[in-house]
Automatic annotation (TrEMBL), chain A:
Stored Pfam families: ADH_N, ADH_zinc_N
UniProt cross-references to Gene3D superfamilies, sorted A to Z: Medium-chain alcohol dehydrogenases, catalytic domain, NAD(P)-binding Rossmann-like Domain
Membrane-crossing residue ranges in chain numbering: none
Taxonomic path: Bacteria, Pseudomonadati, Pseudomonadota, Alphaproteobacteria, Sphingomonadales
Descriptive protein name: Glutathione-dependent formaldehyde dehydrogenase
Provenance organism: Allosphingosinicella deserti
Cofactor: Zn(2+)
Keyword Zinc: yes
Xref: PROSITE patterns: ADH_ZINC (PS00059)
InterPro entries cross-referenced by the UniProt entry: ADH-like_C (IPR013149), ADH-like_N (IPR013154), ADH_Zn_CS (IPR002328), GroES-like_sf (IPR011032), NAD(P)-bd_dom_sf (IPR036291)
Similarity section: Belongs to the zinc-containing alcohol dehydrogenase family.
Domain Alcohol dehydrogenase-like N-terminal: 27-155
Residue span, Alcohol dehydrogenase-like C-terminal domain: 196-264
TrEMBL record, chain B:
Taxonomic lineage of the native organism: Bacteria, Pseudomonadati, Pseudomonadota, Alphaproteobacteria, Sphingomonadales
Gene3D superfamilies named among the record's database cross-references: 3.30.530.20
Protein's name according to its UniProt entry: Cyclase
Protein origin, superkingdom: Bacteria
Listed InterPro entries: START-like_dom_sf (IPR023393)
């Protein structure tokens, strides 16, 4: 089959690789219908996540049709149109049973690579380095999905492929970030980042009853989409974000701040210049402008919900959180906990993930798609590939 | 040894523990199944059961090295299993697995301790060169695979990875 392979920093190529096969009894093979780019991939492509290997098939946000089924799969069958969360979860361990699917105790084939870094291995994920399991990704004609009964969700008739696609990753991540905020009547939620994850967090915060949602980014087309979703847009290159947020909240500050930016935050001013230089010299893996700003902006006793991916940030103003009594919630997405509900919200039109699908390419054109996505050319929010 | 610089992953005496949400007797039975042993140690050695208590081990080192030994299960208490290599082992070793009730509804704690005694001294560093794996990885991975097997009936794998992992180098 054809697949998009990572060959080194900024070196992506479509290659012919072996077709995946059923390896365990609960696996299925999916014929990929749609698969998409995620901000997380940019961290891999830019070489900020170690233990990638030449030839790794990229892609962890996808939906497709089941074409082959392991002997112990009981709930889904050949021909089903399904969406699959990006983290692989068994459904049977303590973490899965406590809805913390990305922390699954049994789905990581290479725990010895990750345990020294994190203390305990997490669940495995498609195409996110070997320290995260080394599973082949979805930017391919076919992908192997383990634990199909837990990880494949039937897409209801009438819901389009485009709407179902982002319920794999961007939507559950955003929804989890809003869920972390424990939104109460009257709450104002500020979201840094209007990429796929940030936009989904904004719509989710509204579904969960936020009084007002404020969206922060610099790209006009992304801010326009946030506004179309009902958020108040703020361009951080044009306004002083902290002052603007105080103004918009009567001096209280947002009740919760969601970071949907991550380790490659852009910024302005001296701190940003410092972060860029350190990152370029590999002295620091993270540029944390958005996260630092969110820590300063959040109201006293508020919540900081971190969805952006970080490594080992070396300058972290913990005192802001401590003195302000801030609650921090963060995780890799526990998709399986949210997908059924998100499919319903999408069916009712309350969640409209298809709005993220601004650009569509064949698999052969996927390197071009990544280029556009990375450089945000032509208003590209997400590049979608149809293998 | 200096406590600050000591890297316990290189100890020839390797320990690890996992908690599994299942009763101890069920886990003990599963551990003793011959095919379980060959599956959970496969990253380290080919284990072939000879009979209920004896198994043949062949570990593969880098550059084609092969190390053989036989292990014998000792008679022990109900909350533990003990085994050790017989005379003539290429790499002498001994293991003990203790089952303890976990607090609350967490199931059972498994504490595994394997002590290797490689020729030329009990140095984990020598051992990791011999096997291409540090002792702690050997033990941790076996326990992790056992937990997966106990909870899901399968061991997570990407091997043989048919999708484009060319065994290329890490970048
Ligand atoms: N927790 C999870 O499970 C999970 C899942 C998916 C993605 N992620 C992470 O979420 C983050 C966002 O993902 P995405 O797909 O939306 O990425 P994206 O690259 O499409 O969007 C990131 C957005 O952040 C904006 N941004 C950069 N600096 C900013 C700043 N200082 N202030 C405000 N906005 C700023 C960019 O302009 C961009 O629009 C990434 O770090 C990604 O790795 C996490
Ligand atoms: Zn993602
Ligand atoms: Zn699990």
């Amino acid at each position: 089959m054809r697949a998009l392979c990572w060959n080194g920093v900024n070196d992506l190529r479509v290659e012919t690789v072996a077709d995946p096969e059923i390896l365990n009894l609960r696996d299925v093979i999916l014929k990929v219908r749609l698969t998409t780019t995620c901000g997380s991939d940019l961290h891999l492509i830019d070489g900020l996540i170690p233990t990638m290997r030449e030839g790794d098939v990229l892609g962890h946000e996808f939906m497709g049709e089941i074409v082959d089924v392991g002997r112990e799969v009981t709930k889904v069958k050949r021909g089903d149109r399904v969406v699959v969360p990006s983290f692989i979860a068994c459904g049977q361990c303590w973490y899965c049973q406590h809805d913390q699917y990305s922390l699954c105790d049994t789905s990581h084939p290479k725990p010895e690579l990750q345990e020294p870094l994190l203390g305990y291995p997490t669940g495995g994920i498609y195409a996110y380095s070997h320290a995260f399991g080394g599973y082949a990704g979805s930017h391919a004609e076919y992908v192997r999905v383990p634990f199909a009964d837990t990880d494949c969700f039937l897409v209801p008739d009438g819901l389009s492929d485009e709407n179902a696609l982002f319920i794999s990753d961007a939507a559950p991540t955003g929804f989890m970030g809003a869920d972390f905020c424990n939104i109460q009547r009257g709450d104002v939620i500020a979201v840094w980042g209007c990429g796929g994850v940030g936009l989904m967090a904004q719509q989710s915060a509204m579904i969960l009853g936020a009084e007002r949602v404020i969206a922060i980014d610099r790209y006009p087309e992304r801010l326009a989409q946030a506004e179309a979703f009902g958020a108040i847009p703020l361009d951080y290159t044009k306004v002083d974000v902290i002052e603007a947020l105080k103004e918009l909240t009567g001096g209280r500050g947002p009740d919760a701040c969601i970071d949907a930016v991550g380790m490659e935050a852009d910024g302005t001013g001296v701190q940003h210049a410092y972060d860029r230089v350190k990152q370029a010299l590999y002295l620091e893996s993270d540029r944390g402008a958005a996260l630092r700003q969110a820590m300063l902006a959040v109201r006293k006793g508020g919540t900081l919900s971190i969805l952006g991916v970080y490594a080992l940030m070396d300058k972290f103003p913990l005192g802001l959180l401590m003195n302000k009594g801030v609650t921090v919630r963060t995780a890799q997405q526990h998709g399986q906990a949210y997908v059924p509900r998100l499919l319903e919200h999408a069916q009712r039109g309350e969640l409209t993930p298809a709005a993220l699908a601004t650009h569509r390419f064949s698999l052969e054109e996927s390197p071009k798609g990544y280029h556009m996505f990375k450089h945000k050319e032509d208003g590209c929010l997400r590049a979608v590939f149809a293998p | 040894m200096n406590a600050v610089t000591h890297d316990s992953s290189l100890d020839a005496d390797a320990r690890a523990a996992v908690t599994i949400g299942r009763p101890a007797d069920e886990l003990r039975t599963l551990w003793l199944r011959p095919d379980t042993q060959s599956r959970i140690w496969s990253h380290f050695a080919d284990v072939t059961p000879i009979d209920e208590r004896t198994a043949e081990w062949v570990a593969h080192g880098p550059a084609g090295g092969e190390y053989r030994w036989r292990t014998e299960l000792a008679a022990g208490g109900t909350n533990e299993l003990r085994w050790s290599s017989s005379d003539g082992a290429d790499v002498a070793n001994a293991g003990v697995l203790v089952f303890q009730p976990a607090p609350g509804d967490r199931g059972t704690e498994l504490h595994l301790d394997v002590r290797f005694d490689p020729p030329g001294g009990p140095l984990g560093q020598a051992l990791s060169k011999l096997f291409h794996l540090v002792p702690r990885e050997i033990v941790l991975k076996a326990l992790y695979k056992f937990r997966a097997l106990a909870l899901t009936g399968e061991i997570p794998t990407t091997d043989p990875q048919p999708a484009a992992r060319k065994g290329g180098t890490d970048r």
